[in-house]
Design the sequence.
């Protein structure tokens, strides 16, 4: 996770980028405390400057050997290239503020275990995603969810003139859940709403002016 500006004196910084998701998100305000007596430990979420000193980076410590640290973002596949030492660490991220609420950031062994669990779940989901996608499509084609969920609010179709012709937007409770572009043959409906929508009852491309 790379930050566009240097740390301010209060050690409170805004983060950007997805490299530490789901632990940290873009826009989170981080509370960073410099290391004093204790040293960086395995599992700590630490902030350090990039080699060119132009920005700061916040990643998790995944290895500590003879005072040399290796780091990686919780959402990153590869380990960071640069090896750090305690002198290059700005501090440890103790908490984050998101939507006006302060949350503790897991560090140490607990944080490391958490990061391993997140990585394992992400790997497992990526492996079963193709199967889930097939099951989702088959279930949507059965129309069973559509019949079972008729008590839901009925979706509305809104049309407007775009650069390529008339475009249709499907909304449910005021939220856009799908659209039919003049250049597309079929509706594009966000999951899981396709389970609730019978596309055959929606306006089709040949009905667009």
Sequence:
């Amino acid at each position: 996770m790379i930050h566009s500006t240097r740390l301010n004196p209060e050690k409170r910084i805004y983060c950007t980028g997805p490299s530490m998701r789901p632990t940290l998100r873009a826009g989170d305000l981080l509370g960073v405390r410099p290391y004093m007596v204790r040293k960086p430990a395995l599992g700590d979420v630490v902030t350090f400057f990039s080699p060119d000193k132009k920005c700061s980076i916040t990643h998790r410590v995944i290895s500590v050997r003879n005072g040399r640290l290796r780091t990686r973002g919780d959402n990153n596949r590869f380990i960071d290239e640069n090896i750090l030492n305690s002198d290059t660490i700005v501090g440890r991220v103790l908490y984050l503020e998101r939507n006006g609420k302060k949350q503790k950031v897991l560090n140490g062994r607990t944080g490391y275990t958490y990061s391993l669990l997140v990585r394992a779940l992400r790997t497992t989901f990526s492996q079963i995603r193709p199967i889930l996608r097939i099951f989702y499509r088959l279930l949507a084609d059965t129309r069973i969810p559509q019949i079972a969920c008729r008590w839901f609010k009925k979706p509305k179709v809104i049309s407007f003139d775009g650069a390529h012709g008339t475009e249709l937007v499907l909304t449910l409770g005021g939220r856009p859940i799908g659209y039919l572009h003049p250049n597309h043959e079929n509706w594009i409906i966000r999951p899981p709403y396709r389970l609730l929508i019978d596309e055959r009852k929606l306006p089709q491309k040949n009905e667009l002016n």
Q: What stands out?
A: Residues 2-118 form a domain with the Umud Fragment, subunit A fold (CATH 2.10.109.10).
